[in-house]
Design brief:
By secondary structure, this protein is an alpha/beta fold. Helix content is 38%, strand content 14%. The protein has a 7-stranded parallel β-sheet with strand order 3-4-2-5-6-1-7. A 6-stranded parallel β-sheet has the order 8-15-14-11-13-12, sandwiched between helices. It has a two-stranded antiparallel ribbon with strand order 9-10.
């Protein structure tokens, strides 16, 4: 009997099965492998909601386990422990232990451990070959210090790696596809936005440039009645998540929904574990009587109920784009089994307008570097009262620099701040070629269509300088500049520059 028990409990990681990876997951997986080969011991994987961060993490864990390595998967919140454990089971990685106080699945001998960060902080870290950090942008001291001194390879996971200091911990950023790519591939559904009633945030108290939660909640209390009414108008048939500014704000929102016969509940740090489990069990049912969950932060990260069809943003922000993206992303997962085709964002905060330009950039391009996200979360959007812009191509609103509905790129005159004297006409010989904007457009068009694409931007800037006497400033970005007809004078100037360059290099 004892021998049979031992044989039955011996891990068989080779029996694990994974769904075939999508193309973007294969690319991200390959980049992580190449990064490690290149010497990047600590890498950060950026993957939008629905991109399969946990899937990729389990795939990497499986590969390590097959080689006899020890793996730790770190969760920063206790509510995610069981969710992650269930995902591991679904792939056949049932031979894992859980490091969390009094957890029924405690097994210190297992090579694969799913760990509560809080428990590790109090008990200490076991040895490991691979450490996977979920929600790595949170940067808790309990793991940031450990991973910089331990021997393990480290993979951080985040949909929004915007927090300061990530570049000091991780040396390589790998993206698993932009939100646009995931929407086109059907992993995410399109976001439909309705700008609804919003609080007046003029002269509201701030701290560090951001509105204080108390101020946001105080102003938001005035429009809770509108939230209920407008939700009934737009989304009464949709499972919904609402984000409020404080716990008190959330409780009042839930109370007013319940008062009109719509079952709602708060899900916050004050919600007891057993109550959380009961709420989630009911909310995940396709025919759940619980239609609305209200939260400040607890539902913004890692929460996965695919048939959520509406997100109500009642938490005004003007700095933290990452928080806004996390909130909006809770309803973007596709759910083919329920016929979900889109997600409604009811904006009661004004956030979608404040962040329109930056969100469009993240939607299409993701992040190029770790410090890029940090800068986006430091910038204060002071023009919170500006009206929403419509896409000139399809009418979608609000439209940033690029429409997230149809992809139309907008180059607005308001984005081009001309310096004093910049509108003078420039000449090449006797030929007039136009003002600085015209010269820049011709320079970009010519260099974009000739030579090495990797050097086109630099060549365009030098051609522009050779005509105007200075490098381009306060002009549209190279990639956003439209193609125009190239004059003979600019073409000849470019050819003359190339001849002079070759002669100079030969000399």
């Amino acid at each position: 009997m004892q021998r049979e028990l031992i044989e039955r409990e011996t891990p068989n990681y080779a029996s694990a099965t994974f769904p075939p990876p999508r193309d973007f997951q294969t690319v991200a997986h390959g980049k992580l492998r190449l990064g490690y080969i290149a010497g990047h011991i600590r890498q950060l994987l950026m993957a939008a909601t629905g991109a399969g961060k946990t899937y990729l993490a389990m795939l990497l864990a499986h590969e390590a386990l097959l080689k006899g390595k020890k793996v730790l998967f770190i969760c920063d919140r206790t509510t995610l422990i069981n969710q992650t454990s269930a995902v591991a089971d679904s792939y056949g990685l049932s031979a894992h232990g859980v490091i969390q106080a009094n957890h029924w699945r405690t097994d210190k001998s297992a090579s694969f451990q799913i760990c509560s960060l809080q428990t590790l902080a109090s008990r200490g870290w076991p040895d490991a070959d691979l450490i996977i950090i979920d929600e790595a942008h949170t940067q808790y001291k309990a793991w940031t210090e450990h991973v910089q001194t331990c021997r393990a390879a480290v993979i951080g996971l985040s949909a929004t790696p915007f927090s300061a200091g990530l570049g000091k911990i991780f040396t390589n950023l790998v993206s698993a596809g932009s939100m646009h790519e995931l929407t086109v591939s059907g992993v995410l559904v399109p976001l439909r936005v309705f700008s609804c009633s919003k609080p007046d945030m003029r002269n509201a108290e701030t701290s560090g440039g951001e509105w204080t939660p108390a101020a946001a909640a105080d102003r938001g209390m005035e429009i809770i009645g509108d939230v209920v009414i407008e939700w009934q108008k737009f989304a009464s048939d949709r499972k919904t998540i609402i984000f409020g500014a404080t716990i008190a704000h959330c409780e009042e929102i839930a109370r007013q929904f319940n008062e009109v016969g719509i079952m709602a509940a708060t899900f916050t740090c004050d919600t007891k574990p057993e109550e959380r489990a009961a709420l989630l069990a009911e909310y995940k049912k396709s025919d759940s009587v619980l239609r609305v969950l209200v939260s400040v932060e607890a539902l913004a990260k890692g929460f996965d109920v695919q048939d959520v069809g509406c997100v109500c943003d009642c938490r005004p922000l003007r700095k933290s784009l990452s928080t806004a993206v996390q909130m909006w992303g809770r309803g973007l997962r596709a759910s083919p089994d329920t016929g979900k085709v889109d997600c409604l964002l009811l904006d009661f905060s004004g956030n979608i307008v404040r962040f329109a330009d930056d969100f469009a950039d993240i939607f299409y391009n993701g992040l190029d570097s770790l410090d890029m996200g940090e800068k986006l979360d430091k910038a204060v959007r002071k023009d919170e009262e500006k009206p929403a812009k419509e896409c000139p191509n399809c009418g979608y609103s609000p439209c940033g620099k690029r429409c997230i509905s149809c992809g139309h790129e907008v180059v607005r005159p308001s984005l081009i701040v001309h310096e004093s004297g910049e509108m003078i006409e420039f000449k090449i010989g006797k030929a007039t070629v136009g003002d600085k904007l015209t010269v820049w457009e011709q320079s970009v068009t010519l260099c974009r269509g000739q030579g090495n694409p990797d050097t086109a931007k630099g060549r365009a800037a030098h051609l522009f300088k050779s005509i105007t006497g200075s490098f381009p400033r306060n002009l549209p970005d190279f990639d956003q500049t439209q193609n125009v007809v190239i004059s003979k004078a600019v073409s000849n100037k470019s050819r003359a520059n190339s001849i002079a360059f070759r002669h100079g290099r030969a000399a």
